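name: query_chain
kind: protein
chains: 1
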Amino acid sequence: MNPSRTRPQTSLTVRNLPAGVKQRLRARAAAHGRSLEAEARHILSAASEESAPGGADERVRWDRIRARFARLGGIALELPPRAPGREPPSF
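structure:
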């Protein structure tokens, strides 16, 4: 089953795009063997997945942070025992 037939497609118009951006996008599309529109769809899809919570960008950032501090080793923290909370105020 073709997914494009089961749900409506969304259209997006980008106005006032600088000529240099359009030229670079067209060159990038040609390098990837895609149309200008297909390249824009690819870039928007990738950007939306990376910026989503738990997305690829967040995982890469976490991996880079972990790699930077891994050589230092872990830390064993002594946590104090929890004490009972104080009595709530009576009004």
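note: The radius of gyration is 25 Å.
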